[in-house]
From TrEMBL:
GO molecular function, one term: heme binding
PANTHER family for this protein: GUANYLATE CYCLASE SOLUBLE SUBUNIT BETA-2, SOLUBLE GUANYLATE CYCLASE GCY-32-RELATED
Domain Heme NO-binding stretches: 3-159
Protein name per its UniProtKB record: Heme NO-binding protein
Gene3D superfamilies: H-NOX domain
InterPro entries: H-NOX_domain_sf, Heme_NO-bd, NO_sig/Golgi_transp_ligand-bd
Pfam family, one: HNOB
Amino acid sequence: MHGLANRAVERFTRDTYGRETWHGIMHRLDLGFVEFEPMLTYDDAITLEVLGELALTLKKPLGEVLEDIGTYLVSHPNLEALRRLLRFGGLDFVEFLHSLDDLPGRARLAVPDLVLPPLELEEHARGHYSLTVGPMPEGRIAFGRVMMGLLRAMADDYGALVFLEHKGTRADREIIEVRVVEAAFASGRAFDLGAQLR
């Protein structure tokens, strides 16, 4: 797993639950280090061990922890650059949904060896979509749960009223049902496409 993904888990834990919680997890796992290097690649088994220990420490199901990480990636002030990158996907939440097919490619432009699973959006009716996540290589984390949290946070960011449901896994692909009830339900967070010059 790419170090950036592992670093995201580390930062989520430290920013949300404190440095002591993170150090406790790494001490119990005894991996020989306490911090991930963002530009290195780690064995997927290490990532799965860390996530499993994190879920045990927090007394939460792993899926819920992964969703929390996805929300963190968009909503935490320390990751404003990622939020801005995602907001360039569209002027509203529906446009953003339609830009998701290109997200793995855009991620590779920024970090060539960062592999995200394929994302495929299908529109069933007005406001009713399914997002297929995957397939992921065997042994990788359920990225669809991370996408659930990310989508929930992006809907809030755009001010959209959205219902999300993880529909399970079919043929190594996770399915997320997305129902956009109202695209402009609230004002959302401020966002300017142009940088502010001073």
